[in-house]
Design goal:
Strand order of the largest sheet: 1-2-3
Helix content: over 70%
Strand content: 5-15%
Oligomer: single chain
Structural class: mainly alpha
Largest sheet: 3 strands, mixed
Order of helices and strands: EHHEEHHHHH
Shape: globular
């Protein structure tokens, strides 16, 4: 399994250090690592082979070698990460003694990670789950179309919400995350366009071969 590092993580680190939020950022990244370990364990249990791990400004991403028809297994795989965050929140509520990290910070970090990753934005867990669910009922082409459309609409709504909240909260973290989400959506849209062109060329080639 190869490991890749998104260099933007250093920019995020500097900005969070400058705004005196480096501790919460480091805590979130720690629980994001546990989030991805849950994906890894689920993937191995489902028989998937890990391909790459990428360290990004908002966490970690493990890519597995999967087949198109494995959509039910992939839904379980994508749910594993957010579920471990909710489990950590539950454990924190039930744990009676003091911890090295304040309980409020643990709950906040894991709740933020769970909600963030369940957003219906591809390639976040929520976006991937949505794509696989649509795939089951409508096929791969519609799944690509609908998941990209919903991702775009969701980011627009978040942009409006974040723009309003920044006026009152003045938290640069929201702006950084929003910019990164736009990057993911635009990148996903370009990948979809490449997919469409590839499928069009394949169909054209098949027609010529049959004729």
């Amino acid at each position: 399994m190869s490991i890749k590092i998104d260099l933007r993580i250093f920019l995020f680190g500097v900005l969070f250090f400058w705004t005196k939020q480096i501790e919460i950022y480091a805590t979130i990244m720690f629980f994001a690592f546990l989030h991805e370990i849950a994906h890894l364990c689920a993937g191995l249990a489902l028989g998937f082979k890990p391909k790459t791990m990428k360290i990004t400004p908002v966490g970690f991403q493990i890519a597995f070698k999967t087949k198109i028809e494995d959509y039910h297994k992939k839904i379980v795989l994508y749910l594993a990460g957010p579920m471990i965050n909710f489990l950590l929140i539950l454990v924190c509520f039930l744990w009676k003694t003091e911890l090295m990290i304040p309980k409020e910070t643990i709950i906040y970090s894991n709740l933020l990670l769970a909600i963030f990753n369940l957003l219906p934005i591809y390639p976040l867990d929520g976006g991937r789950i949505l794509k696989e669910v649509i795939h089951i009922f409508k096929g791969s082409k519609v799944a690509y179309q609908k998941s990209n459309l919903i991702s775009f609409v969701t980011v627009i709504v978040l942009t409006i919400m974040v723009s309003i909240s920044i006026l009152y909260i003045h938290n640069i973290a929201f702006l950084l995350i929003l910019i990164y989400l736009w990057y993911l959506v635009i990148k996903s849209q370009k990948e979809y366009e490449i997919y469409e062109k590839t499928m069009e060329l394949t169909r054209s080639f098949d027609k010529k071969r049959k004729s």
